[in-house]
Amino acid sequence: MQGICIVDKKIGVNYPPFIIAEMSGNHNQSLETALKIVEAAAESGVHALKIQTYTADTMTLDINAGEFYIDHPQSLWHGKSLYNLYQQAYTPWEWHQPIFQRCRELGIIGFSTPFDATAVDFLESLNVPCYKIASFENTDLPLIRKVASTGKPMIISTGMATVAELDETVRTARENGCQDLILLKCTSTYPASPENSNLLTIPHLRDLFNVEVGLSDHTLGIGVAVASVALGARVIEKHFTLSRADGGVDAAFSMEPEEMRQLVIESERSWQAMGTIHYGATQAEKDSLAFRRSLYIFQDMKAGEIFTQNNLKVIRPGYGLAPKYYDVLLGKQIKQNVKKGTRVTWNLLD
């Protein structure tokens, strides 16, 4: 894999992690707030901001009972119908252009997750540079075909999908025109726990499907996301809000600006720390070799005297012979007068 280019940003093993701030419904139906979120995301150092493109009618039916009602007591959205939830969370389509324009002005990439064919057509009219497929839509093969046919890079969250389902998804994307594909490990609970994150799946995904990989992370904090970089994640997506105290459908598991800034910094440090397989002193460590232990004369000695435990010591710094020669030298004669603190070298031996 040579890496993927989205606008002017390269994604791949040779490049720092590509960080996406997901706005979702955290704008709370205010365009002013949405634009402030874009600005805060750019200030935090992210590379891209993502929104979602749907309406309540393209997502579900307006039924407030039974299977269309969220009655799980532990859900953040308990007590809402699916239709009402999506009415509250959706980003009005007329906002897309000003949001993407503000992204361009601030030097970050703006794109979206479409949830049906009409959303794809609309986003194509705005010339978005790439597409995201949400976990809950990763088995919607008609949608995958539609997005793949644009020929633009696709980022697909893998939450809940089996290997067989992902194989269908990847094949469908590739057979319908997608050349640049990124799979994101995702745990589709809100919030997710570190224990359920299963980050070891990330390198397996990469090797199984020969794709760039990353993490769509719903855990709290930055620890899980930073750890994912060491396992090969080159894209990290986190939900983003100005303040969790503002509320909103996803606020409880969204990052605030300072947290996002730390994620950008620490994920790049994690990537830098990967390095290569290396043993021995690095160039930066060369000077530190002086602080190893080595053999030194511990008392003034005269020519002909014998090395003993009293006059030969293993101490810092490291300019003398290596400590492994200590037993070799005991009982040997010194051939010249030396002062205490003289480093031991072979030319002192008789």
Which helices and strands, and how do they pair?
Elements: E1 4-6, E2 9-11, E3 18-22, H1 31-44, E4 48-53, H2 56-59, H3 82-89, H4 93-106, E5 109-114, H5 117-125, E6 131-133, H6 141-148, E7 154-157, H7 163-175, E8 181-186, H8 201-209, E9 212-217, H9 223-230, E10 235-239, H10 257-274, E11 294-297, E12 312-315, H11 326-329
Parallel strand pairs: 3-4, 3-10, 4-5, 6-7, 7-8, 8-9, 9-10
Antiparallel strand pairs: 1-2, 11-12
Helix pairs in contact: 1-4, 1-10, 6-7, 9-10
Folded structure, characterized:
It contains eleven helices and twelve strands. By secondary structure, the chain is α/β, with parallel strands linked by helices. The longest helix is centred in the C-terminal third of the chain and has 18 residues. The chain starts with a strand and ends in a 21-residue tail after the last helix. Strand 9, helix 9 and strand 10 form a beta-alpha-beta unit.
Question: What spatial form do the alpha-carbon principal axes imply?
Answer: elongated
CATH topology of the largest domain: TIM Barrel
Proportion of residues in helical segments? 25-40%
**Any idea what the CATH superfamily of the largest domain is called?**
Aldolase class I
Number of strands: 12
Bin the strand percentage.
15-25%
CA(first)-CA(last) distance = 61 Å
The domain tally reads 2
CATH architecture of the largest domain: Alpha-Beta Barrel
| Oligomeric form | single chain
Number of helices: 11
On the 0-100 scale, what is the average pLDDT? 96
**Global structural class:** alpha/beta
Order the strands across the largest sheet as they lie in space: 5-4-3-10-9-8-7-6
For the sheet with most strands, the description reads: 8 strands, parallel
- Along the chain, the helix and strand elements come as EEEHEHHHEHEHEHEHEHEHEEH
Rg over alpha carbons: 30 Å
- The top-level CATH class of the largest domain is Alpha Beta
